[in-house]
Design goal:
This protein is mainly beta. About 5% of the residues lie in helices and about 40% in strands.
Length: about 450
């Protein structure tokens, strides 16, 4: 283990377990005001999920990036955004934890960073005993000096260097961990404009890697992808990826599905007339290790952000669809008189067969107020259940538990939030529990 220029400090976390009646969850580390609020605003009783605990974890929460819970449900991690970028690891249900300062320039594959539509450059190991991540040398303004370097973090804050990754296309500029054993989808030679000094990237390349061994398992220069080839001269690749997801196939290979943003092309001569601008639609790019990439057009071309997740076996893609009411959205104007938005009913989620690209089911919903739709959905390890957000109602933003066979909503989780809504959620590895996180507040639900 080689020492790295990261700052480590021990974080104390008050985690006294509050005494609660049998019908209320256990509280860990939460102050009395929060507990009283939850008691006065309980979640509606439902099944098969039952709220069993709420942890108020002592971590930095000044971030647009999501919190995530370990596969065994015993710990939480949060890597904040902003100038400092605190990275936190803390146990659930007991005091303690560690905090690092680890600043990098670009943390996800997506161009809308941080959007939540692509996983952060941090992921739990499959056994919950460590985390896969990256470090980078940056200047005081946050511009990159070097490419990303993969590392492995222990729960005690120990930092382990992984074998150096080298690629002819250039430095490592983005990573999405897949499967929890060190494999990942990576960008090489992709973001030269975010370095000081800047540099050209003549051959931007997607790659599938094994960071635990330092091996490049497969490479895909973007000039070999038909739609990318057309896009490169006019638009480049830096802002090309809208969302991303990945999975390990039953045979051990990596599969990734990327949503590539729509873009506009100005004609030669530089005309700014609307009628002269060429508008290119977005598309999905599916790439399986050892195979040629596949592209297909999306049936919802008007959607800008499309959070999605692959099933654990890589066969199905659960996609969130943009659903907002009609009207004018106004921010920070207490004296403005704005007509309430008109409710809109449409598709909120869709399950797609990755091989046939056929929609297996769609789920309708109605949006009555404007809301942020950047949180990606989740699928249980056995593929039986799905989780995704529904449009807000009555000051709550429900999370739907759905039957993945037909899209039927089995239950809605409607946490009473103090100040903000849930920004991440998922299943534990054994699939018997669900976690819902809002910054440093983590709720654990158990299947009856």
């Amino acid at each position: 283990m080689r020492a790295l220029p990261l700052v480590l400090s021990i974080v104390a976390c008050a985690a006294a377990t509050a005494s609660t009646p049998p019908d209320l969850p256990l509280f860990h580390g939460c102050h009395d005001g929060f507990i009283n609020w939850i008691k006065k605003n309980p979640e509606p009783e439902a099944s098969p999920l039952r709220l069993v605990s709420i942890d108020c974890v002592g971590i930095s929460s000044d971030s647009y990036y999501p919190t995530s819970v370990s596969p065994n449900g015993a710990a939480v991690q949060h890597w904040s955004s902003g100038y400092i970028q605190h990275f936190n690891i803390a146990p659930l249900g007991e005091p303690g934890g560690v905090q690092l300062v680890n600043k990098v320039t670009y943390r996800t594959l997506a161009s809308h960073d941080p959007s939540g539509a692509a996983p952060d450059a941090i992921a739990w190991s499959v056994d919950s005993g460590a985390l896969w991540s990256v470090r980078q040398a940056v200047n005081p303004s946050g511009f990159a000096i070097t490419g990303l370097t993969p590392i492995k973090l222990g729960l005690d804050g120990s930092i382990h260097d992984l074998p150096l990754l080298r690629h002819a296309a250039g430095p490592l500029d983005g990573i999405m961990w897949v499967g929890g054993e060190g494999k990942a989808v990576a960008l090489f030679g992709w973001r030269g404009g975010y370095y000081k000094p800047e540099h050209d990237d003549p051959e931007p390349t997607l790659a599938i890697i094994d960071a635990s061994t330092g091996k490049i398992l497969d490479s895909l220069p973007v000039r070999t992808i038909p739609t990318f080839k057309d896009r490169l001269p006019a638009y480049g690749v830096t802002h090309s990826i809208g969302s991303a997801t990945g999975a390990i196939l039953p045979d051990g290979r990596v599969r990734t599905v990327l949503h590539m943003n729509r873009w506009i092309e100005r004609p030669q001569g530089g005309s700014n007339k609307r009628e002269d601008i060429i508008r290119h639609t977005d598309f999905w790019l599916e790439w399986t290790q050892g195979e040629a990439p596949q592209e297909w057009r999306d049936s919802y071309a008007s959607d800008w952000l499309k959070p999605a997740v692959l099933s654990a076996d890589g066969s199905k893609l659960l996609v969130m669809r943009e659903l907002q009411p009609n009207g004018v959205q106004v921010f920070d104007c207490d004296d403005c008189k704005v007509t309430p938005p008109t409710p809109v009913t449409g598709t909120i989620a869709e399950l797609i067969d990755v091989v046939t690209r056929r929609a297996l089911w769609t789920l309708p919903a109605t949006a009555t107020q404007f809301w942020s739709q950047r949180t990606p959905p989740a699928i249980s390890p056995d593929g039986r259940y799905g989780l995704f957000q529904l449009p807000p109602s009555d000051m709550r933003r429900p999370i739907a538990l759905v039957d993945m066979r037909n899209g039927r909503i089995i239950q809605t989780i409607a946490p009473s939030m103090v100040g903000s809504y849930a920004d991440s959620f998922g299943f534990t590895k054994e699939g018997k529990r669900v976690w819902v996180a809002t910054a440093n507040v983590v709720r654990i639900y158990s299947f009856d």
